[in-house]
Amino acid sequence: MTTLSKHIISRLIPITIFFLTIYTALPYVKPGIPLASSLDNTTLRWGISILILTVFFLARYSFFDKRNEDNMIIVWIYLLWNSVCIIRGMFVAEMYWDWKGLTGNSLSIMLPVVIFAATNKSIVQSSLFFYMKYMFPLFLLFIILLRPDAYGFYLIPIAFLLLFFPALTTRSKILLLVATTVVLVADLGARSSIIKFGVPLLIVIIYYLRNKIPSNIFEIMRLSLFILPLLFFSLGVSGIFNVFNMKEYIKKDITTTAIDNRGNMVEQDMRTDTRTFIYEEVLESAIDNNYWLLGRTPARGNDSFTFGVYAYDLTGRNERLANEVGLANIFTWTGVVGVLLYTLIFFRASFLAVNRSKNTYVKLLGIYISFRWLFAWIEDISDVSLNYFMIMTMIGLCFSYSFRNMTDNEVIVWVRGVFDIRYVRLQQYLMSKSKTQEKKPGQLINLSTQED
After folding, report:
1. Residues 92, 88: Cα–Cα separation, whole Å
2. Number of domains in the chain
3. Does residue 154 belong to any structural domain of this protein?
């Protein structure tokens, strides 16, 4: 790729954050705003999705560090398997609605191509800088337009940045805390956002206690987050214990007020089980139609006698094309094979972050990636959205050889560059200096104790 093409791609990547943020927010705009409904149409959304995938596919040739090639084999295999399932879907599709589902779902399951460019820490830094400079201030407008339960979807990059909280200046810390508080208190019924923002705060505690706890605590937590979902799934399938049925083990009523899809205030029981019936329908459909191993392809969904009845008038099938549970969709579209490959991506990324890194911040990121795999059993839908994009970006950083080999002080400079261009210049200066002379101990100042 020519220098000009590389420059163009580097400029386009941050702009994709604009489209991802806007199209993540549009479905949650309050009723009665005509511009939102006109923008949120399938054709335009597909066009934007194709643009995003094209940009990151081309970025793989310009910004991917070849030192990461061996660890990226599992990502290639997963994308190849998804491509096979897409091709199979072309033979499975029978009508307009199948082809429409195939197109939308295919774009979604190919988003992991972002991982390749995300191994370049400068690309990730510039993307986040664009978000904090332009999209974050724009939230002041969207806070008026959006339903409160959607604030967390718009601000999801903040959840990632919370992992670097100890490295930030006082001003940046206050900014993140204010944004997090807005998400946590805006709608207590938005359990997903509360969890996704609350967990990074809990993980950061490990940083402050790192000298007082066993050195293997990171690996213990990482493995636990992979084992727990499998344990709960086995207990649930066997009928011994259903973790989603909270009314069985939390007897006290826990209610809050929330806003429904029509903008009305309603009382919501925080213990409500909204997942068990999805697992039942997804598993029964896979067994009854014998696609559990290879999947039903992205052209089809799972048989459903709850939400599927709404699709019957259009398709003539009691079938739900997608569910709220990320792994359930991957299972339906790509089978057990797809789920195993998807799991291996998270497992390998978290392993490298926790066990093959020189700084504490990447280890914290590895724990959070393990948690996001656990959360895929609850939500984290595979779609072209800011949330899924950030998951792939975090995985890319875990795979990144250069990011994992940074010292704590170097990470401090990097993450502060997300908020302040001066630190980007400092980072560039230190990088150019390191190319001309070998680093000496103490070359980097202790930025963790300095504030703006």
Report:
1. 6
2. 1
3. yes
Read off the tokens for 277: 């019936």
- Residues belonging to the chain: 452
> Letter for the amino acid at 24?
T
Burial of 420 (0-12, 13-18, 19+ CB in 10 A): middle
- Burial label, 3 (beta-carbon count in 10 A; 0-12, 13-18, 19+): exposed
Is 279 inside any structural domain?
no
DSSP 384: S
Strand partners, 267: 257
Q: Would you write out the chain's pLDDT as a tens digit for each of its 452 residues? A: 567 677 788 888 988 999 999 999 998 988 777 777 778 788 999 999 999 999 999 998 888 878 888 889 999 999 999 999 999 999 999 999 999 999 999 999 999 999 999 999 999 999 999 999 999 999 999 999 999 989 999 999 999 999 999 999 999 999 999 999 999 998 887 889 999 999 999 999 999 998 888 889 999 999 999 999 999 999 999 999 989 988 887 877 777 766 665 656 667 777 788 899 999 999 999 999 999 999 999 999 999 988 887 888 888 899 999 999 999 999 999 999 999 999 999 999 999 999 999 999 999 999 999 999 999 999 999 999 999 999 999 999 999 999 999 999 999 999 999 998 888 888 877 777 766 655 455 455 455 444 44
Q: Which residues contact 86 (CB under 8 A, 6 or more apart)?
A: 102, 106, 109, 297, 298
Q: Which domain holds residue 122?
A: 3-238+321-449
Cα(181)–Cα(83) distance, integer angstroms: 41
Using CA atoms, how far apart are residues 105 and 103, in angstroms rounded to an integer? 6
Answer whether residue 308 is part of any domain: no
Backbone angles phi, psi at 253, to 5 degrees: -65, 135
- Rounded Cα gap, residues 212 and 375, in angstroms: 28
Structure-token pair, residue 441: 């101990």
Q: What letters, b where the CB count within 10 A reaches 16 and e where it falls short, cover 275-301?
A: beebbebbbebbeeeebbebbbbbbbb
Q: Is 193 helix (H, G, I), strand (E, B) or coil?
A: helix
Cα separation of 441 and 429, whole Å? 17
* CA distances to 49, 144, 147, 220 from 351, in Å: 30, 41, 37, 11
In a domain, 260, yes or no: no
Q: Give the H or E element holding residue 424.
A: helix 421-436
Residue 48 CB-half CA count within 13 A: 21
